[in-house]
């Protein structure tokens, strides 16, 4: 089937050249391992075009192969026909044939977030033991921004408020730190088998601007990890937090979700979790935990090195400010009033004029170092912190599983003697059911950890993003700084009062 499909695709792709948007759509709607387009996804894609049903039926008839699947080229044809129809042209295969050698038009399909989410869900249903997501797909689920609300509120104890913006929910709400705490507690209750990121600490008194800024960044990472989690991102608790515009959020949220079932009692996969857990899962988990410790330590070292790079650039900026300030001070010092000391040499007066001109140019170098430090902090350090948050959440998850296993062992050992002594069939049956339930919960816990482990591996692609950012920042930043230094050269060469005298050179190496 796969060989014949490839031949068909090769024959069909003689029309037009394929724009990147078409490939992006294929990656979204191809939610399986056979490289064929899921028909449910394809139908939902057609509906997003907002074309009349009659037009969509015509498009379907032209691309439906009657083979139970849709090929890549079939999808590309459909996208081209949708674009032509949106331009007011009648649906016809001749339109595509006339585009030989030209780039096919791009259809308007609006926001694709819901299609991405559906694709992830279908992929998980078709192969529940494989996460099958890329880092790009995870990031596309949502982007959440957090900014500080300018004014502090509260009559006596002033508190900080955050403006939270969710791209997926198209929402803007204001939240306090305690609202984040309530969200964290509720999610831990419902998803004890998932990675729940840690919250940054709360500092009651004496929180300076640096602490507040660091906490803002940490809260932003916290929400983005939740908003991009394949399971938690679809939960009503998170949706409430990101969209509820009323007051007293933490209490409203706790009241609204009081008594909510945990994932084990509300997830259909929990019933068949035994089939989703490989036999050697416990041993594999022990090996992976050791690997994650090494990964965490390695990324921690990278983060600390990146922080030192940021600090060095900030120190360079501070030194440039000091250097320029001293030049300015020298330039404003008293002029030579007699030639007793100078012997008629006019060097100092020339230097003073030049130093005044150099001061703003050196200030530009300082600003360039400051900007480079800020970009490195955002694009390198914070991305490394994001991954460290992921691995820390994974460690917490594994610790919860160990705690769960310890409790189960304790319960099991405490019931051995009473079970042997009891002959009551009702008691025996209840104990057996409890044991079976605990075994199912254990299997679901292991299955969840298996999927979370794959999610950690997906997040490892952050390292590529970090390296790309570091290379780009260093290349552009150093080039900019070098250009600024070079721009001073003509001015420095004019500082000598007499023409024909060369610039003095260092005698240290002589």
TrEMBL record:
Gene3D superfamilies: EF-hand, Phox-like domain
Subcellular location(s) of the protein: Membrane
Main location: membrane
GO cellular component, one term: cytosol
InterPro entries: EF-hand-dom_pair, EH_dom, PX_dom, PX_dom_sf, SNX8/Mvp1, SNX8/Mvp1_PX
EH domain ranges (all copies): 22-63
Membrane-related topology note: Peripheral membrane protein
Name assigned to this protein: Sorting nexin-8
Organism expressing this protein natively: Oedothorax gibbosus
């Amino acid at each position: 089937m796969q060989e014949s499909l490839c031949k068909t695709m090769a024959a069909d792709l003689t029309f037009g050249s394929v724009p990147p948007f078409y490939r992006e759509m294929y990656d979204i709607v191809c939610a399986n391992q056979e490289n064929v387009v899921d028909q449910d996804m394809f139908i939902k894609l057609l509906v997003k075009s907002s074309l009349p049903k009659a037009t969509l039926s015509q498009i379907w008839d032209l691309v439906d192969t009657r083979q139970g699947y849709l090929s890549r080229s079939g999808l590309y044809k459909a996208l081209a026909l949708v674009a032509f129809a949106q331009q007011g042209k009648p649906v016809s295969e001749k339109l595509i044939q006339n585009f030989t050698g030209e780039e096919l038009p791009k259809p308007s399909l609006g926001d694709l977030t819901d299609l991405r989410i559906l694709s992830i869900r279908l992929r998980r249903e078709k192969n529940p033991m494989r996460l099958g997501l890329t880092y790009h797909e995870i990031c596309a689920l949502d982007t959440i921004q957090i900014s500080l609300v300018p004014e502090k509120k509260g009559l006596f104890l002033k508190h900080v408020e955050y403006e939270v913006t969710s791209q997926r929910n198209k929402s803007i709400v204001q939240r306090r730190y305690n609202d984040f705490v309530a969200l964290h507690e509720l999610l831990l209750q419902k998803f004890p088998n998932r990675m729940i990121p840690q919250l940054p600490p709360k500092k009651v008194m004496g929180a300076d601007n640096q602490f507040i800024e660091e906490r803002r960044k940490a809260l932003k990472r916290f929400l983005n990890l939740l908003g991009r989690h394949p399971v938690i991102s679809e939960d009503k608790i998170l949706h409430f937090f990101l969209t509820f515009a009323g007051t007293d959020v933490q209490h409203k949220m706790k009241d609204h979700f009081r008594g909510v079932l945990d994932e084990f009692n509300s997830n259909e996969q929990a019933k068949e979790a035994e089939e989703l857990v490989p036999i050697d899962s416990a041993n594999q988990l022990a090996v992976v935990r050791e690997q994650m410790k090494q990964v965490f330590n390695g990324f921690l070292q990278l983060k600390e090195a990146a922080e030192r790079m940021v600090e060095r650039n900030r120190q360079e900026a501070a030194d440039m400010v000091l250097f320029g300030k001293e030049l300015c001070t020298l330039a404003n010092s008293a002029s030579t009033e007699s030639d007793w000391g100078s012997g008629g040499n006019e060097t100092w007066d020339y230097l003073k004029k030049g130093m005044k001109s150099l001061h703003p140019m050196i200030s530009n170098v300082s600003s360039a170092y400051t900007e480079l430090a800020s970009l490195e902090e955002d694009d390198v350090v914070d991305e490394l912190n994001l991954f460290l948050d992921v691995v820390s959440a994974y460690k917490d998850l594994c610790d919860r599983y160990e705690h769960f296993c310890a409790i189960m062992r304790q319960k099991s050992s405490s019931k051995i003697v009473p079970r042997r002594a009891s002959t009551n069939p009702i008691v025996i049956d209840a104990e057996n059911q409890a044991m079976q339930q605990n075994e199912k919960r254990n299997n679901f816990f292991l299955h969840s950890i298996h999927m979370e482990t794959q999610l950690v591996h997906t997040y490892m692609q952050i390292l590529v993003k970090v390296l790309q950012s570091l290379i780009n920042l260093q290349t552009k930043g150093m080039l900019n700084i070098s250009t600024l230094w070079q721009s001073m050269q003509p001015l420095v060469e004019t500082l000598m009062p007499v023409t024909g005298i060369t610039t003095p050179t260092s005698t240290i190496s002589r």
